[in-house]
Fold:
Amino acid sequence: MTLSDPLSAAATRFGPALDRELREAVPDESRGAIYRLVRYHLGWATQNGVVARAEPGKRLRPYLLLLACESAGGRADGGLPAAAAVELLHNFSLIHDDIQDRSPQRRHRATVWSIWGEAQAINAGDVLHAIASRSFLRCAERGVSLGATHRALALFHESCYRLVEGQYLDLTFESRVDVSPAEYLAMVDGKTGALIAACVEIGAVLAGRDGAAWRAVGRAFGRAFQIVDDVLGVWGDPAVLGKSVDDDIRSAKKSLPVLLARESLSATDRTCLDTLYGADRRSDDDVETIRRMLDQSGARERALDHARAAAMEGEAALAVIQERGAAVAPLTSLLRVLVERHR
Structure:
């Protein structure tokens, strides 16, 4: 199953308007050459600046924000600038993430840093961050009160703090062998979970609701998404994902499957895994050896059990919100399918 199943209706309803919002927010090359890098990353142009239409990605975050806004009783059009902002912020993080992970490919295309170099890729990511913040403020021009816009913008910036803090932890984990599942979950709640969780809360705030009541729902979305992402990073189909499934192992990422495998492997196998992960580099044979060890430990299914548990917590939180009058069916459907996705 892919995320297109629950998101297809959202893409049909919101996609064209979101596209317009994004294109209004992002300058073209007439303002500066840096925007060729940005537009290339977003799939709007080739590396030579020729107009293109590449796959835009799942767009989970903006659609989640708009669905939450509607579920809380708000109007999606008022939240469109915020939806564009979270998509742009997410893409800022992807450009920087690709540099840090040395990833050569993203969405079936060469990454920005692999074409223009690390320094210019950092600049492209930075300008996306600035564009995102400016886009968010336009909510006040779409019927959202200034107070609600500012409260939602504060959540947006807080999520960026936590995203970077989580990314810092993720990178420090690469040089450690003693990372616990609890530390991993704290990292996930920042790196990936913070922005996804914020989308739910921001949507509610833009609708005039108390966002705190929606926070547990957002946290569940974030955890479930990242845990499944970790599983796909080891066992996914590269043709579907648009990138290699060796990168996480090769860069010694302490993903949840790896941490769970360490808990169940024999002392000898654990030492072998730690030795391979502690080496400066991992060969193709090393990557396959590690993958076999993860297979034998049952780490894939155990990790998915954690994702399912997070989804159940989210459904429980949604049930509480539903009792208060929110229309949560679209969010419930999306949460359920998150743990079964293939991309």
Summary: The domain at 4-338 is CATH 1.10.600.10 (Farnesyl Diphosphate Synthase). The mean pLDDT is 93.
